[in-house]
Amino acid sequence: MFVIAIGAFQWFSMAAVLDTQSTYNLRGMWITIPDFADRIANSTNYFERIYLRLNGWDGHWYHHIARNDYQCTGIPSNSNPHICNVAFFPLVPFLGSAASQVGIDLVYALPLISQVAWLLTLLLILLFVRSIREFNALRISLLLLLVAYPGTLYASMAYSESVLTLLVVSVVVLSHRYLQYGGTVSIVALAACCYLLGLVKVTGITASAIPVLMALAFHGARGQLLTRQHGLMWLAAGLSLLGVLTFFLFAEIRFGRWDLYFQYTSQGWSGKAQGIPDLNPLSMFTNFHWHEHPSVRLSNAISIVLPLLIVALGVLAWRFSDDRQHLYVGILGAAAVMYYAYSVPGNYAALPNRNLMRHVFPVVALAVMAAMLLPVHRLTRIASALAGALTMTAVVLGLYFQTQMFQALKVGDWVS
Question: CA–CA distance from 314 to each of 5, 12, 34, 338, 394 (Å)?
Answer without folding.
Answer: 32, 36, 49, 15, 20
